[in-house]
Amino acid sequence: MACNGLLDLFRAVTRVPSDGWVRYGGGPRPWATVSPPTHLRLGSLWAFGLGHWAWAPSSLQVDPTLFQMQSSIKPCSNHWVYEVFLSFRGTDTRKNFTDHPYSALVRTGIRTFCDDNELPRGENISKELINAIHGSRISLVIFSKDYASFNWCLDELVQILHCKSTMNHIFILIFYHVNPSDIHEERYHEDMERVQRWRAALIEAANGYEARFIEKIVEQVLYKLNPIRLNVVEHPVGIDFHVEEMKTLLQLGTSTTELLIMGIYGMGGIGKTTLAKAVYNHICDGFEGSSCLLNVREVSEQSNGLIQLQEQLLFDILKVKILLIGNVDKGISLIKQRLHRKRVLVVLDDVDRLDQIYALVKNGEWFFGPGSRVIITTRDEHLLVKLGVNYSYKLENMNHLDSLELFSRHAFNMPHPEEDFREISIAAVDYAGGLPLALEVLGSDLRGRSIIKWKTTLEKFRKSPDVQIQKILGISFKSLDHTTREVLLDIACFFTGVNIDYVFKILEECGLFPDIAINILVQRSLVKIDYPN
């Protein structure tokens, strides 16, 4: 079968786009060919997509014990021996190129493996090299004109791709003095336009200045090694349980290629954003790109707010500054074009309208590639129903023990209250009702005060809640229509703890349509109905 080109080849090899690729150099180079692998390796290599190579007769053989060796090697997913493994064809690049990124990486403090021994043609990859690949976080593959002509280079590549698929290993591809024109163009006499597109893409990627090019390599490696983590909260009490539940529902450890959407819903101040950010930090390394768009509701209300969010989404994942999009429709098209094959993680925080979702992740169809995950936080359960998410996760009020610990950490900087303050601390926790925001605000406000001050402060809170709490809860209230607001106020003032049938009867007689209004209040976590067991 004819080779489908460098980009198609490596996309086929990984089944997804590489974690990054750059190109250095140019000039005409013959496209190397290799013979088919032995029967033992044929199935495995074909599974990686190497069937697209142009096989030519030669004496090249591959090591039939390669996968026997790799089966005895245990991956070290958290404690890496090296941060970067350099894979290259020595005689092509060692003295005139590879030394430069190697030196730059070492100067930056990145632990880098670079094999100093050049294997004679025909020899096989050593166990030392296999161990180095398995013990590295990133592989930097320098693809030169003769890279594919030697079996140990191909063996290294197979090992790298095996680690990518099983250990979240990252590989970055560099084209060194290789152009799309290196492909036998006579095989493409009927599709020269495609060849021209490849050439244009690589020319655009080229920098032309080696020093700046090396800087870009180091920048990309540093980013892959140190992805940005989101600030969660100072005291993440009780959050680990929810994170593990979310990870299970997201099916991260499975082979599914399905795009999964999960919604987190609950009342304002309950901790939806905190949970979404914690999950993001736990799982973002397992994707080709990730983006967490906070305060979607607030930002989208600003002038060109949705466009700003679209630009941020593209930059977070592509790491390229997108020129002004201009309008939302253009942004939708651009997101589809650039991200529809990428396996990404996207978090949309505080969504309250479907048009926000349609502009960022879905407009008839989802914008991202197979295996992607989208997490949406909202106060409105019905919005998730209309969207058709795979899972809806309701975040409930904290239990008493977790509430007391969270309050104590803010009030006393310890997991439990001081003995003299224990009784009044329990009263404060009961007042907060398991709402994390209220527990944090109360605890911080009472810290360092005397018991007398505690009593007066709690009394003030009962009569007039803190401004921050009012603001958060007021957002939910203002989003209601007039009739539903009236029903909520009536319930708060007169019907807390009252039989639901009696409440329905009274509200119906007042012409307030309680069946609709109470359903809305329940979906937005503003009212809870306790049914008898």
UniProtKB/TrEMBL annotation:
Record keywords, A-Z: Repeat
GO BP terms in the entry: defense response; signal transduction
Matches recorded under PROSITE patterns: TIR
Record carries keyword Electron transport: no
Residue span(s) of domain TIR: 80-225
InterPro entries (UniProt xref): AAA+_ATPase, Disease_R_plants, NB-ARC, TIR_dom, WHD_ROQ1-like
The keyword Iron is annotated on this UniProt entry: no
GO terms for MF: ADP binding
Protein name: TIR domain-containing protein
